[in-house]
């Protein structure tokens, strides 16, 4: 692989794949195992699964489904959602999950980031940072599916999670999620300049040039959801992924 990593980011709820717009209005788009088989054929670099659960309903990771995904996936994959303890982390690694993704847990239990990094190395720990602009245009980090404002600047927060041991940041622009209006390049640029660990951009990708623009802003990985599960102006569900040669030309 010579280009920036291009990563389908798949949301799950109740065992199915869904896609949201600005973290709301989850729409069912298919079965995760079928999606994995299609992405196997398309030889994707890696996958990210994020279980967004049901708001206000306590849950744990769906270990049975993740074991099935691990048995089907030819590529490495990361998983986030409902990870609340180091026991969860150990079990996920034992199932074959290459990287765990911490979001709300990283804010509420920062020691869990360090403990997971000590267990498997920083390269196995991603902290997902969800960011929204307020009415004055100021960025702020949110957790709990975008429902809780930490009132922390994403640059300061990114530096803090790097210090805790995160090996990678998944940077989500909530206002761009599912809109297919392009990545938030200003946000990507600010965070990438502040940390030395890889930053994977997410939120807003619709076309190949969007991937190139985010890489130009400093992202070492480009995550997308709608771009890889919807097709056409009516957003029909169709799983796609660029050919390797297309990506080579894009990043040349």
UniProtKB/TrEMBL annotation:
One protein family per Pfam: His_biosynth
InterPro entries recorded: Aldolase_TIM, His_biosynth, HisF, IGPS_HisA/HisF, RibuloseP-bd_barrel
Membership in a protein family: Belongs to the HisA/HisF family.
PANTHER family: IMIDAZOLE GLYCEROL PHOSPHATE SYNTHASE HISHF (PTHR21235:SF2), IMIDAZOLE GLYCEROL PHOSPHATE SYNTHASE SUBUNIT HISF/H IGP SYNTHASE SUBUNIT HISF/H (PTHR21235)
Any one GO MF annotation of this record: imidazoleglycerol-phosphate synthase activity
EC number: 4.3.2.10
Keywords for the protein's UniProt record, in alphabetical order: Amino-acid biosynthesis, Histidine biosynthesis, Lyase, Plasmid
Function: IGPS catalyzes the conversion of PRFAR and glutamine to IGP, AICAR and glutamate. The HisF subunit catalyzes the cyclization activity that produces IGP and AICAR from PRFAR using the ammonia provided by the HisH subunit.
Pathway recorded for this protein: Amino-acid biosynthesis; L-histidine biosynthesis; L-histidine from 5-phospho-alpha-D-ribose 1-diphosphate: step 5/9
Gene: hisF
Name of the protein described by the UniProt record: imidazole glycerol-phosphate synthase
Catalytic activity: 5-[(5-phospho-1-deoxy-D-ribulos-1-ylimino)methylamino]-1-(5-phospho-beta-D-ribosyl)imidazole-4-carboxamide + L-glutamine = D-erythro-1-(imidazol-4-yl)glycerol 3-phosphate + 5-amino-1-(5-phospho-beta-D-ribosyl)imidazole-4-carboxamide + L-glutamate + H(+)
Enzyme class: lyase
Quaternary structure note: Heterodimer of HisH and HisF.
Single GO BP term: L-histidine biosynthetic process
């Amino acid at each position: 692989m010579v280009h920036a990593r291009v990563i389908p980011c798949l949301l799950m709820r109740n065992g199915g794949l869904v896609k949201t717009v600005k973290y709301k209005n989850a729409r069912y788009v298919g079965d995760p195992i079928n999606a994995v088989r299609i992405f196997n054929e398309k030889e994707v670099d890696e996958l990210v699964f994020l279980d967004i659960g049901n708001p206000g309903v306590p849950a744990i990771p769906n270990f049975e489904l993740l074991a099935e995904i691990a048995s089907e996936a030819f590529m490495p994959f990361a998983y986030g959602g409902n990870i609340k303890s180091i026991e969860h982390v150990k079990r996920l690694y034992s199932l074959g999950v290459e990287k765990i993704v911490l979001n709300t847990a990283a804010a509420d239990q920062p020691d869990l980031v360090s403990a997971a990094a000590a267990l498997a190395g920083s390269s196995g720990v991603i902290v997902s940072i969800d960011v929204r602009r307020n009415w004055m245009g100021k960025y702020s980090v949110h957790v709990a599916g975008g429902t809780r404002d930490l009132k922390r600047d994403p640059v300061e927060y990114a530096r803090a999670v790097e210090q805790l041991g995160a090996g990678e940041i998944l940077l989500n622009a909530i206002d761009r999620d599912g809109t297919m209006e392009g990545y938030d390049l200003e946000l990507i640029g600010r965070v990438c300049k502040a940390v030395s660990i890889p930053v994977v951009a997410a939120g807003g990708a619709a076309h190949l040039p969007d991937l190139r623009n985010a890489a130009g802003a400093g992202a070492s990985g480009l995550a997308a959801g709608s771009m890889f599960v919807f097709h056409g102006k009516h957003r029909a569900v169709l799983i796609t992924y660029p050919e390797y040669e297309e990506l080579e030309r894009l990043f040349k």
